[in-house]
Structures are given as C-alpha cells and as structure tokens.
Design a protein that fits this description.
By secondary structure, this protein is of the alpha/beta class. It has 18 helices and twelve strands.
Amino acid sequence: MTALPRAAGILLHPTSLPGPNGIGELGDDALRFLDFLAESGMSIWQMLPMGPTGYGDSPYQSFSAFAGNPLMVAAPGTGASFHPHRVDFEAVIPYKQSLLASAFDDFAPDDSYRSFVVANAEWLQDYALFMALKDHHSGATWTAWEAGAAMRAPGAMEEWRTKLAIPVARVYVEQYLFRRQFHQLKQAARERGIRLMGDLPMYVAHDSADVWAHRDLFRLDGSGVPLVQAGVPPDYFSATGQLWGNPIYDWAALRAQGYRWWIRRIQAMFDLFDIVRIDHFRGFESYWEVPGDATTAVDGRWTPGPGAELFDAIAAALGPLPIVAENLGLITPEVEALREQLGFPGMSVLQFAFEGDGKGSEFLPHNFVRDRVVYTGTHDNDTTMGWWASAAHGDSTRNAEAVAREKAFALRYLAADGSEMNWTLIRAALASVANTVLIPMQDVLGLGTDARMNLPGRQSGNWRFRFTWDQVTDGISRRLRELAETYERTDRRAIDRQVRRQSPG
C-alpha cells in the first residue's frame, strides 16, 4: 500500500460539471474545476466509475469495466438548451450520440490512434463489437440476441465484424477520444498538484462486454443467465436489502488463470487514476449471494470471497498501489482484518456518526485513525443540508423522538447551533486526524436534498445532479482554503511526491 499524505479533496462525478451539452464533459469546464480545486487548497478530485452507463444510467452498471463513457467526451455543440442543474439523460443521450457521429465523420486516424487501438485491443475489440451488436439488436440484453452472436460462435463473429464494421470503428474512435481527453485532464491535474481518484465497483453488469466475452469467469447457466446474483442484505439504506442483479464471479476459474482478468482491470484503472477506491470491498472477504430468480435481496447467503490471495496476485504483478477500501454496511471483524492485512485505508462517514446516542460510533471524529478516508457524506447519502433537514437518512421507520435525539447529540458534539451544518461537518472532517478528507460538491455549495446524487433502491431519477459556475463564489473557495491550511492539508511537497508516483506498467 502506498501511503496517502494528509490532504483534502472533492467528490464530483464529471457528468455533474457545468457545460453546454446537457452533461458534464472532459473539456474546458473540467479544467476550470481543477483550477477551483487548486485555488481552494484541495488536492484530490474523486470521481464515480467512468464506464459507459447502462441500466438506470448508473455508473455502477456499466457496459464495460475497461471502456470510458462517451457521453463525457467533449464535442462542439449545436446550441441545444438543457436544464442547468439536472442531466436529462433521455434528451442528452441521443443529442450526444449525434455529436459523436459528427466527430467520427470528421476523424482522421493517425499514429496516436493506431497505437491506442493496438495497446487496448484485448478489451477494445470485444467491447466495440458488443456495443455495435447491442445497437443492432435495439438495445436488447445480449442473452436475447440471435444464438450466434449471443454465444460468440466463431463463424458468426466474423460475419458480424464485417457487417458492423462501421459502427465498430465508431466505438473505437469514441474510446480513443475519451482516453485522449482523460489523459490530458490527468496531465493538467498533475501540473496543479491534484490527484485523480477513481471508483472501481467490485462487480460488473451482466449486460456487459465483460460477461459476454468471458462467460467462463462468471456463474451463468448454459444460455448465459446468472445462476446467482449479487446484492446486500437489509441495512441502513434499504429494509429489503439491495438487489443489484450483477452476476457473481467464478472465483475458482479466476484463480486458475492467476487472476489475470482482475490484474488487467486494476492496471487499466491506474492508467487513468492516481488513487482507486474499491466499492463493496467487504465482498472480497465474503459476499451476499442471492438466487438468480430472486426479486429482493432478503433471501441470500454469505459465501467466502477470494480474500488476500487476489490482492497478493495484483501486488505481485503491479506493485503496491494506493487503494481505498469502501467498508460501509454490514462489516465484520473478518472484513476489517483483511483490510488491515492489505494496508488499505477504510472509510468513515460523518452523517452516520450521530445515530442513537453516538457513543462508541466508529464514525465520530475522536475515534478516527490517521489511515482513514473521511466523508461528510457519499454519493449514496443525502446532502448534508438535506440530512440535517430530516436526519433520517431516507429511513422512514425512524421516529421523531429518535431524530430529535440524534440532532441534539450532533449539536452538542460539534458545538454547533444548527446553522450552516454543511460547513460544520466540513470543518469537523478537516480538523480530524484522518489523513484524507473528501467532501461532495453538493456540501461545499450547501445544497439540499434536490441535489442528491443517488438514493439506493430507487430505480430511476438518480445520477442527475449538476452545478453551475454562478453557484461557486470566491467566498466558498477562500473558506475551503483557509480550513485546509488551518488543518495542515496543503503540504505541497508531500502531495507532489504522491502525484509523481509512477503508474503500474
């Protein structure tokens, strides 16, 4: 594990950036956001998963574990009008597809493009054909395609590659543009002393190029349908658990190949990012396995995961890496023992610190350790201002008396009067001993529940938040910098040493 220096940053998915095309892009507004981070004393930009989104527009349900989301590719617009504070995916997707089609028509392959295609052929060929086939089949899940395409019959694959040569080439160009723009953004971040932090979901979507092309690495029946699916049992986010629907890995098959697929996946992440958060880390110790035909996650069982063996294989291939383990939810001593054995810092969320009487909560700042990543809230939480307005975390089973006790304890603990609770939690996080603090942009701006990024269990309406530059005042930037400097989170030498870390080869 590569230690993280004492620093602070902001959690913002690029789709939430301002911009003219209805969705945040990897262009001028992303560079302007880097400037805002630098001016504010922030040295980390954390993003959500960057893959092409599928079901529900969720970054955690991507068509590929390796590809980038082409909706983020910056392209000249046509003057269309979009909502400034919300991504209207239904309108944005066809609009951006038309812009990308124009970019493809004008694209002239060069040596840089050809080098990209060769270097990424192992995943790019399968992904491009998958997306072309999916479009040809009107978006249907791959198990519903005609048998030759669904089962990847060699003869059928050759026929489809010829028939769909143009849409396949278009996907190649989209991925090249995404990777080129992201690398430019990464270089600009390094010039400003800012590290990019990525988010890697443990699971991949069933309707993805990864599962279609590597069915032997997942527990599927003969027609490709999952025998079991992933999720989590009931917790503070959902009374019936969360049924994610992702297929579960065949860990024996992955072990037999020396975890090669996982090594490639981690290597691809560190080609883009300086730090990587692994979502649902607890699943590597043991995971919640639900029958493939289940409709809720209530009836499942815990099954042992690969444990340290997987990460030992990754470290042997790539060396020690700055990885953060998402260890929220039903965490057991065995999960924490695995995390500590691997040297991965865990997470603490301040919004969870004050439930009940708060006594003994690991999320209270006086219980933090240095090797910790602290959030005011995550993408799955309400905004801090929304949380303070309800103090119920979306759980309607909590009564008014419990909420009142929670608020009273929070005010007493934080020595606060209840005003500007976003800044109260930001200060508490930055003042803590934890090395790393990450603040959602919504909390920096003091926004309410309407700006929430995701409500777990809600099937639609998530991932839509956007801000505008007129919300970002000079006073906000000065206030962030003063706090970061006061609590010694702006040591440029330590941060620069981390930024210069060589990515795994």
